[in-house]
């Protein structure tokens, strides 16, 4: 299991890095989302893998899954939605305003560009 | 009145002018004046005690570990300066009421003025040098606002920038110097520092500390070679110049030199640096002043010159010279403030300050003429006026001081300075007011109203009174203030007009006669001066600033060239490299846990996940497909959470997944549907290599973590043990969120709310720009489905709505004890609402939306905050939770925890934030002219048949 989880995290990270290095906004957003999965899983993995352990307190159960990373990851998932939404809107606004979805500035300062291109 | 209140009053009062300006300009001015007057009265209450030699103290521990305490003390020197700052400040406030034009924003002016006044009072009352530094920087900042008050004037803006650059730079040096000084003594309290003269002067760090502190003082007090900012600051309105350059800003440097005189003065270093700088400044300023045609520029350079004089006196390091310095500070403040205000009156009435365009004003403006004459004669050092007394004493001090073995160089140069001082003072009177009446004034000059000349007139009266009866008027004040400077017994001196025929008197007479001769020769001298080539400080300053700016631009543009991908690549590579260095540099323990066996189901999940990830990289050019693949990844991750005993995470992940995919689909509606292949093969290989290395690194690290045990005991055990007894819930994850780490969660929902509001704001700004108009007029794509709101889907979602809401409520209520809680419930409810948006259309859904989502976010944050504050009422820290068991027959006993109220806040905030974000995005799709349908259904067979029947 450990090998599966670790390799999955690695694969998600690699895909995330590759996509964030692309030149258009949409793949970069996808890449950030992939990195989010990877980071959340990594954070979750810091509690070590627990299979078939109760997540809520029960009577007469000595071992539980680690709740702390779960709580941290839970808010991270929600916050990452907020972050994705903001990034998407920045990308959308930029594309609609300039008709261009490149993440890199083209050569020369921004204000030197013709607005009506 | 407590000292801290005196120091705080102007700051608090600074809030008033902006409000009172609505009640009119008079109300605004009087409010401001009453603030200053209150502070002044509060100060004067202490005056009798201070005059008896007591020191008033006020101490407040602020950050004792840093040595930063809000300690204030009031001794003679502090009383003198605080009195000048508040007293002249009061006169300036009254004068400014009549000086400012109708279109000048008066509220702003008085606010800036009070801020500045507070900072100055703070400097002179501070007992803690760190506190003093804070006020020092505040004077730089607030004087920037004052000097640049006329924002429409480029000179005003440049002057303000220059003043800020020079004094701010000096302030930085001062911070360094003060820290060294505090370090030497081992205390940041002035009263302690002042008693440790031997310790400080014996320290090897004395010279660096001295130089840094003097840099601060010299820049502030416009000493050569930093004198150039002061004349450029004259672009400010005249009340500002009168205030800053007579009694306050530039005197701050002198104050600090006087304050630290007992510790720093008396060494050869102090003498040669301070006295020489002061001497040069005095002579240079006086010479330049003679050739300035602008009234205010003349006064500015004369101020530079007089500041140099006082600096030189402090530099002598003898008690007698220190007494003279204190005396001259008083005299200079009175006559110079009067002169500045009078120059403002001349400017105000004639619309020019150019001496060459003036003359003959004696008959037209008799009151102003008298005031200027009195003040200028004092500045020239003519008997019967106060300037004469301190100048005589200065010459006396100079004749008794030997500079580098040379007994005559100091008196000679001091006399030269005095000579030029006589010349420019008389020029001010003669060329402005005497001579024939002219016919070409830019405006018809006449004396202003009483309000405007009252302040300078009062000062002129003081000039005469001090000049005639010095011992009676200011004798005790000079004694107590000089006592504070010297920190010991006062030397012999006498404040009186006639000291008999002595060397200073001869020097004085020489200066007056020489000055008058110079004035007679002014025309040819002026021509020669204009022709001569001189270094222009502003040009040099601009060149230096320009070079620094270009350098900074070059560096920034070189590093920051707008290529986001490059930054990202650099970031990833360096993080990986640093991580690798840390990994291989340290000693990681080997695997200590045995790997769990791999089952069939996880293996299938792994293949799905990795397969989807690989496909995503391969097919990301098709954006819709990539989105679907991302959905698969998210789904598998959710299942993985279930499998690994984290049902809360699974629920959260899957609901966030739904919302995210909808969000991206909405965005994709407006973005290109495909990504063109633009990167070269080489680039793809490069990125691929970075990605693979990064992935291997993260995966390897994860494996290393997974296979080893905790190096220390985890704090999770605490949470498990206390969840039920302390938090009253068995779902430990939820209890952690709403109780143990409730403050984190509180911050997180605020962040989420802010993110949603940011999205809303950005949508607004895009839609109200031309882009919005273009969007609304875009052609409708004929390929779209003809039925925008399919009947089946509309019905299904509406039937499901109450069920979905019930699920949300259920998940919320069980959250404290079973998997669930506010986050998940919020997401579920958001999805339920979202379904209505998707099926029935944005217009239909939003027409039925009673509460704006902003309100829901706000309510959520309020609910969470109030729950937290509620625990204060019980005398517990913020967000301490409590719970109890209740029974309402016929229901079973149930538990209520305050944490649930907090969770309601989380719930509301999540609903509001998710919905606001998605609603904002869907507003892009909103077309012009679309109205919500008046019917609950787009297609309604009964309505259609009724319509058909009517048609038939």
From TrEMBL, chain A:
The family note in this entry says:
Belongs to the CPA3 antiporters (TC 2.A.63) subunit C family.
Native organism taxonomy: Bacteria, Pseudomonadati, Pseudomonadota, Alphaproteobacteria, Rhodobacterales
- Cellular component GO terms, alphabetical: plasma membrane
Topology relative to the membrane: Multi-pass membrane protein
Q: What InterPro entries does the record tag this protein with?
A: CPA3_antiporter_subunitC, NUOK/Mnh_C1-like
A Pfam family it matches:
Oxidored_q2
Record field: transmembrane: 6-21, 28-51, 71-96
Record flagged with keyword Zinc-finger:
no
> What organism does the UniProt record list as the source?
Yoonia vestfoldensis SKA53
Subcellular location, record wording: Cell membrane
Q: Which residues form a coiled coil?
A: none
Keywords in UniProt for this one? Answer: Cell membrane, Membrane, Transmembrane, Transmembrane helix
Which protein is depicted?
pH adaption potassium efflux system protein
- Domain of life, per UniProt, equals Bacteria
Automatic annotation (TrEMBL), chain B:
**Pfam families annotated for this entry?**
MbhD, MbhE, MnhB, Proton_antipo_M, Proton_antipo_N
Any one cellular-component term (Gene Ontology): plasma membrane
| Residue spans crossing the bilayer | 72-95, 107-125, 162-186, 206-230, 242-264, 270-291, 367-388, 408-430, 450-483, 503-521, 567-586, 598-619, 624-644, 650-668, 689-708, 749-771, 791-813, 819-839, 851-874, 894-918
Domain of life, per the record? Bacteria
Specify where the region named Disordered lies, as residue ranges: 928-952
Task: Please state every residue range assigned to the domain named MrpA C-terminal/MbhE.
Answer: 683-762
Q: Which UniProt keywords apply?
A: Antiport, Cell membrane, Ion transport, Membrane, Transmembrane, Transmembrane helix, Transport
Is Heme set as a keyword in this record?
A: no
Which GO terms of the molecular function aspect are on file? antiporter activity
Q: What does this protein do?
A: NDH-1 shuttles electrons from NADH, via FMN and iron-sulfur (Fe-S) centers, to quinones in the respiratory chain. The immediate electron acceptor for the enzyme in this species is believed to be ubiquinone. Couples the redox reaction to proton translocation (for every two electrons transferred, four hydrogen ions are translocated across the cytoplasmic membrane), and thus conserves the redox energy in a proton gradient.
Quote the protein name from its UniProt record.
pH adaption potassium efflux system protein PhaA
Q: Which organism is it from?
A: Yoonia vestfoldensis SKA53
Q: According to the entry, what is the taxonomic lineage of the organism?
A: Bacteria, Pseudomonadati, Pseudomonadota, Alphaproteobacteria, Rhodobacterales
